[in-house]
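[audit] Reproducing an earlier prediction to check determinism. Same input, same settings, fresh worker. If the tokens differ from the archived copy the diff job will pick it up downstream; this log only records the rerun itself.
[audit] input (479 residues):
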Amino acid sequence: MAFAEQLSALFPPSRCLIDAASLSAYASDGLTAFAVTPKAVVLPESADEVIAVVRLCHAHAVPFVARGSGTSLSGGSVPVAAGIVIGLNRLSRILRLDPESRIAIVEPGVTNTAVSKAAAPFGLHYAPDPSSQQVCTIGGNVAFNSGGAHCLKHGMTANHVLGIRAVLANGDVCELGGESLEGVGPDLTGFFCGSEGLFGTALEITLRLLPKAACFHTVLAGYSTLDQAGETVSAIVESGLLPGAMEIMDRLAMDAAEAAVHSEFPPGSEACLIVELEGAPEQVAAEKPLLAAILARSRPIEVREARDAEDRLRIWKGRKSAFSAVGRLSPDFIVQDGVVPRQKLGEALRTIGELSRRHGLRVANVFHAGDGNLHPLILYSGSVEGELERAEELAGEILTMCVAMGGSITGEHGVGLEKKAYLATMFSADDIDAMRRVRLGFDPLEIANPGKMFPGGEAPSLAMRGLHPLEAAGVMSRE
């Protein structure tokens, strides 16, 4: 029986999408410069259905991409023209929540925020908090080892995943890790986190839950320059303080967020620094004067403390809405994701400013300052000939700068399609060959999310330059 017939036998028409309008919704992810129309999209409702469709793909050597909400910003969940998409959003159950063991076992389609909401009545929460946490799924967080504003203190997704039940690309089902922080042998769970779907698909994920902080102290400081804000971050870290989060936004990002959510950023400042202390009331009380002294020495234009819980949430809403709010300033933008050592933040920001002027494109800076994870948003218009190419060139120069400073081409967005040409700037040919061989050990046919991460080789088609992704997918035109 042909692959299409067998696929139709596994899923009813309402969950096996083949019409152009339905497929267009899955043609791209959060990085809309890439768009590819898949042959079909299937929407399983159980782990058994996921296993069955992966085994079918393996039997026919059909490529597949497992996808959650499609919030990837590196082209990591863009389909393959000859393959299918396995949409996992309907696997959205929290299978077990054990407040005594402080774990939650969830399906891959559960959203990040849903875990913390379910844990809240027990005084617990799930620590990783990417900006898209209201819609991004745990399965996607695992694939890209997502972080968030509070990863400075609490770590990335890999630090909070205890176990994974997964179906590998060949259809084998495996159990990695368990329910304990103590493991025996290699950390295969941590190995799976950040693999960008190249090994297989998570079916169940066991998450570590943490007690919610009893007390928060959130401060917003405005500065005349980005350099000052970056230097203040270094001073805070050198003092021995470990805030829950430290975030920086420049004037362009503040203007966009202010228009969207009215977060009351310091007027007249070119950069703002958000610092949040958290912990027991006694700990926060002892740390507050230390932080205040450091901020006073940093020559801020203004320092404002959150007045109450509502004000604190308003500040964070401004920070977390920055990516989407920048859409008010530009029809298109690229979110970059390089990392530099903290002590080089000031130098990196100056260089980004110089690159911005050289290429004639605006760049809004908003990033996780505590761990040096830059998120410059490069603004361009896809309808202007040559602007996308200039934006991509600028993005590549930022990545090259990060590596030259001793950093990384990615902090939490992954390599995907966007950065694979720059993998060789960070790793040697032998390193990349070793990575390829590991991938082949899990997926000899290279059917699981093919074309991602590694330079060269077979890759999904790029969207036509300057076109809306739906146009590139052949679904609509401007005529």
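[audit] rerun output stored. Observation attached for the diff report: Residues 457-479 have pLDDT under 50 and may be disordered.
[audit] end
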